[in-house]
Amino acid sequence: MAMAEKKNEYPPGVEADRRLLPFETWEDYLDSLIEIADLRNLRSIASARIIAALGYRATGDTLSEKEFYARRAVIHNIVYPVIRPYVLVSEGADLEDPFKREMAIRERANRIGILQPLMDPDDGLLFQNRHDHKIIFPNPEQNPGQNTTKKRVYSPMYIQVEIYDHVVRKKT
């Protein structure tokens, strides 16, 4: 389906509320309904706002303060969504299994790509840290490498699990 053919997923009433985005407060919204003649005749902005709030100055329905803030919040979240750079799978997950718990602790570092996989014809799969460029050897029969520790985790889900933690040292 082409982009132009994509149906709008929000009802027309929500799309019509885009007109509320320029107004930060309900008073700003009411001020937009007030005309110069109202100020000339009433001689008070407070009185003009009361007339506008009662619905005498709008062609359609005037929103109450509660409706204004609720509708503005909905359209603001649609037009300006909060974007998370990545969603952690472990958030809200059941972490009863020791392996899942250990992976949840390390998930952020793995998701942002701190380790780069390498293939070596002699050693097989290796990892290199992007910050200090140290090599990590995930071979159970070999030393894991400088600044790297190996931890065995017992889990009923898997026969054998080993986790390698690499610590980047600060320059002194």
TrEMBL record:
Pfam families, alphabetized: DUF4464
Localization per record: Cytoplasm; Nucleus
Highest taxon of the lineage: Eukaryota
This protein's UniProt keywords: Cytoplasm, Nucleus
GO CC terms: cytoplasm; nucleus
InterPro entries from the UniProt entry: DUF4464 (IPR027887)
TM helices/strands, residue ranges: none
Main location per the UniProt record: cytoplasm
Function field: May be involved in spermatogenesis.
Protein name in the entry: Cilia- and flagella-associated protein 299
Species in which this protein is naturally found: Parnassius apollo
